[in-house]
Amino acid sequence: MLDFIVKYWLEVVFGLISAGLAYSYKKLTKLYKDEKERQKQQEKSALITEVKDMMLSCKVDLLETIQPHEDELKKEDEKINNEIRHINDTMDVLKGGMLSL
To answer: Which residue, 1, 33, 36, 48, has fewest beta-carbon neighbours within 10 Å?
Structure first.
């Protein structure tokens, strides 16, 4: 009878030890996975912030480059629009002259 109790007592103890180890392993792997995911999100967030800063810097540089030439472009645009208006007026005059014949 004593052998039976000792044999199954040891089985119960080792069963509890293995169950505790399995629970600890599962908990630690979950914590590791969560920490890894948190670090990945943190790196992603830092990368997004860095890209936004770079884009803003490029936008500022681009605007600083374009701004001095903006007046020249507006004058050139106005000049082209005047030429188009002149051509349209000329065409209207020619059409009017052709219709009167």
So the answer is: 1
